[in-house]
Amino acid sequence: MDIASILSNLSGGSIVFLLLAGFIILCIFLGVRIVPQSEKFVVERFGRLHSVLGPGINFVVPFLDRVRHKISILERQLPNASQDAITADNVLVEVETSVFYRIIEPEKTVYRIRDVDAAIATTVTGIVRAEIGKMELDEVQSNRAQLISAIKVLIEDAVDNWGIEVTRAEILDVNLDQATRDAMLQQLNAERARRAQVTEAEGTKRAVELNADAELYAAEQEAKARRIAADAEAYATQVVARAIAEHGIEAAQYQVALKQVEALTAVGQGEGKQTIVVPASALEAFGDAFKMLKGRG
């Protein structure tokens, strides 16, 4: 049985009911829009922007509203780009950059810019050249984090009207031409040689200073030893003088006799010196010395 025979068997009221049911089903199908989590839908009504549908179930007016754009809100990465730039000290460098962004207001992105990737790439190129032109080569290489931060802020300001959020901007590499590299290598070698000479000179200077300090210390110790010996000798002389003053000539004779006995003892203790011949006058002096020592004892 075909459709024509089925319709011929139906009454007019049944046909109207079926058509109405089909129309309702079609309206439901056209009026319900399920938006994925990673997308947003831009809806137009009569050719004009009407609304932006977020993730989940959304309802639109069938036959009047139409989803014109399905925009992904996932983070995107622009292809790595290289551009030439001239630093403040007139050095030509090639800078490789990478930018990450995501669309947060699709209605602005759709109706204000045609090719958002190309527009961002052009903006990044201009900003990178302008910022590097303000810095010398050494600053570009040593303050890369500061440069990246400044570039990111400027890009965000430039693309704000496009409904875009710049999540990250990176400078991947800063390349130099061969002539500049050779010149920098020569400068680096010269700086290393200079530092080596300075280190050697400082080492020599330090050695001289330490040697001078050692000699000064030795001289101070020798002078101190001499001063102590002089003080001891002066003290001994003072003691002898006091003894002579108190006991008269006997004290002086006692000291002389004591020295003679000490000298004789030292001579007798040497090897091959056990037999000693002394003059008779010396024996008399020793006798006097022993008498005085005995008297002292």
Word description of this protein:
The chain has 297 residues and is of the alpha+beta class. Helix content is 61%, strand content 21%. It contains 9 helices and 9 strands. The strands form 3 sheets. Strands 6, 7, 8 and 9 form a 4-stranded antiparallel beta sheet that branches. The chain is rod-shaped, with a radius of gyration of 55 Å. 9% of the residues are buried.
Low-confidence stretches: none
Oligomer: single chain
The ordered string of helix (H) and strand (E) elements is HHEEEEEEEEHHHHEHHH
- What percent of residues adopt helix (DSSP H or I)? 55-70%
Topology summary:
Layout: H1 3-9, H2 12-31, E1 32-35, E2 39-45, E3 48-53, E4 56-59, E5 65-72, E6 76-77, E7 81-86, E8 92-103, H3 106-112, H4 116-132, H5 137-142, H6 144-159, E9 164-176, H7 178-247, H8 249-268, H9 280-296
Antiparallel strand pairs: 1-4, 2-3, 2-5, 6-8, 7-8, 8-9
Helix pairs in contact: 4-6, 7-8, 8-9
